[in-house]
Amino acid sequence: MELLRRIFRIITAPFRFLGRIFRAIFNWFNRTGSNLHNFFTEEPEEVPITDTLSKTVQDPTGLFVHLDALRKHLLRASMVFLLLTAVALFFNEQILEFMTRPVGGIKDVIAIDVTEPLSTVMKTTLLVGFALSLPYIAFEIYLFVAPGVGPGARKWGLLAIPAVMILFVGGMSFAYFVMLPTAVPFLLSIGGVTPQIRLSSIVGFVTRVLFWIGLSFEFPLIILILASLGVVNSKMLLTNWRIAVVVIAVVAAVVTPTIDPVNMMIVMGPLIALYFLSIGLAALAQRNREKIPAANET
Predict the structure, then answer these.
(1) Most exposed residue of 25, 46, 99, 133, measured as fewest CB within 10 angstroms of its CB?
(2) Euclidean distance between CA atoms 23 and 177, whole angstroms
(3) CA triplet 162, 71, 49: central angle to 5 degrees?
(4) What is the mean pLDDT of residues 280-295?
């Protein structure tokens, strides 16, 4: 009888092993689903800011807990940024060719200093690493901020993460494919001379333009977040649209690499369009904020 029992256990061992694996997977999905449900439905404790500040002054240990959580989020974001920067380093030749294409490619530029190629490669790979890791950096920021906001803001915040990448890449694409083909020939035609273009000069120029234009395209998302928090509203933005156009003109003048009004208008056009898009997003966020108290009263 004991022999039959041992034979049965040997025969059924693979099935029991698979059963444990499936049971562990099921428990993991069950715990994950429960945690996600609590994450998106749990209401944060509403404490006035004055009470929070006085409590922090009296007992700073609570602040240390948040600082430690922030340190962990920043550490993970930094590790992903460094990892993707290291991956971009393996494609440095293709990246340099891409960056120098507005002036004809890598074959049409020169390097004067011994360390110029190395410093240029590091600059370009850092930009590429930041662009690739931006969604994860935004996700870590979201995880840090999410426990302190309501369920509706958490859902909107999660949807905003891919929007961060789309807007940033969209801004860089606009700068590379629309703005630079107009600006670079204009700059090179001034004075009637044929310049010897340095590698660090053109790469630094293209890097700055791509980064700042990509960053400026995040404006609608910033407005959406501020409107969700109640800092701004659509009426305020619509009333002050003239002031916004003046501010956009100043920003375009700073970001635009040339002094001619044509390239400045090329930058101002999409920024003004994004501003009026932000007004619509602010109205949408404001309407959602008004629905939440009404739903709670019901």
Answers:
(1) 46
(2) 52
(3) 85
(4) 67
Q: How far apart are CA 21 and CA 27, in angstroms?
A: 10
Q: Which long-range contacts (CB under 8 A, 24 or more apart) does 98-105 make?
A: 99/124, 99/202, 99/203, 99/206, 99/207, 100/199, 100/202, 100/203, 100/206, 102/176, 102/180, 102/181, 102/184, 102/202, 102/206, 103/184, 103/188, 103/197, 103/202
CA 255 to chain centre: 20
Angle at 34 between CA 165 and CA 140, to 5 degrees: 25
pLDDT tens-digit series, residues 247-262: 888 877 777 765 667 6
How many degrees, rounded to 5, is the angle at CA 297 between CA 295 and CA 298?
65
Provide the whole-model pTM.
Answer: 0.69
How many other C-beta atoms are found inside a 10 Å radius of the C-beta of residue 279?
A: 21
Whether 204 has a pLDDT exceeding 50, the answer reads yes
- Length of the chain (residues): 298
Widest CA span in the chain: 102
Query: What's the helix, strand, coil split of the chain in %, to 5?
Result: 85, 0, 15
* Residue matched to tokens 């930094």: 78
Contact between residue 233 and residue 281 where contact means Cβ atoms under 8 Å apart: no
What is the C-alpha to C-alpha distance for residues 63 and 54, in angstroms, rounded to an integer? Answer: 12
- CB atoms < 10 A from the CB of 272, how many? 17
Distance CA 189, CA 182 (A): 11
From CA 136, how far away is CA 144, in angstroms rounded?
12
**Cα R_g (the chain), whole angstroms:** 27
Q: Are the CB atoms for 145 and 86 separated by under 8 Å?
A: no
Partnered with residue 198 across adjacent β-strands are: 110
Sign of the C-alpha dihedral, residues 248, 285, 230, 143? negative
